[in-house]
Amino acid sequence: MEKLRIGFLASHNGSNMQAIIDSIKRGELDAIPAVVISNNSNAFALERARREGIPAYHISSKQYPTEEELDKAILETLIKHNVNIVCLAGYMKKVGPKVLNYFKNRVLNIHPALLPKFGGKGMFGKFVHEAVLNAGEKESGCTVHLVDEIYDHGRILGQKIVPVYPDDTVETLAQRVLEQEHKLYPEVLQKIAKGEIVLD
Length: 200
Ligand code: GRF
Prior knowledge:
- The protein is α/β, with parallel strands linked by helices.
- The chain has a single domain, classed as 3-Layer(aba) Sandwich (Rossmann fold), CATH 3.40.50.
- The protein is built from six helices and seven strands, in the order E-H-E-H-E-H-E-H-E-H-E-E-H.
- The protein has helices at residues 15-25, 44-52, 67-80, 97-102, 126-134, 170-193; strands at 4-9, 31-38, 56-58, 85-88, 107-111, 139-146, 156-163.
- The protein has a seven-stranded mixed β-sheet, sandwiched between helices.
- Helix 2 links the parallel strand 2 and strand 3.
- Helix 1 crosses helix 6 (170-193) and helix 5 crosses helix 6.
- The longest helix has 24 residues, at 170-193.
- The radius of gyration is 16 Å and the shape is globular.
- The site of 5-O-phosphono-beta-D-ribofuranosylamine has 13 residues, from helix 1, strand 5 and helix 6.
């Protein structure tokens, strides 16, 4: 596969995106952060992108009221920056069919639980960890997977496991999982870059 040129879609903090960028800067991941797109003009992910000198765009339903227009605008921006792999990094919107078709098997997401458990619509952020704690799970973790039309459904590319302790709160568990997310996402990408994970 040609050198990875990553297009990030992020809605909020962008700490996973930052972990990937840092891994590239340390020479551990052979990839280029090509562009960052956010639906949220106040996303810290956009600020991170500017600090890193990565082209950053706010593209949302404010400028593109229909889903089709929005999908098209995002796709055109990704193509303009020669993206060949898309990383969702805390992106709170559903990816449109144009982007999914063009980047078939090339859109990745990270989820803060061990899919296929604790995934699906409404399973994001604290709701995931709440569900894990309520189910009395002894382990949780994170999953990098391919994105398709169904939430948290595509092929699993990598996982990391963490223990769940009896005195865990949503916050302590979320923090333990997030630390592993920051390792897992760059590791999976490097396996793709080296051809150890084949996406077709
Ligand atoms: C992470 O927990 C990720 O698993 C989920 O959204 C969160 C994003 O965090 N999809 P950040 O924006 O990368 O800090």
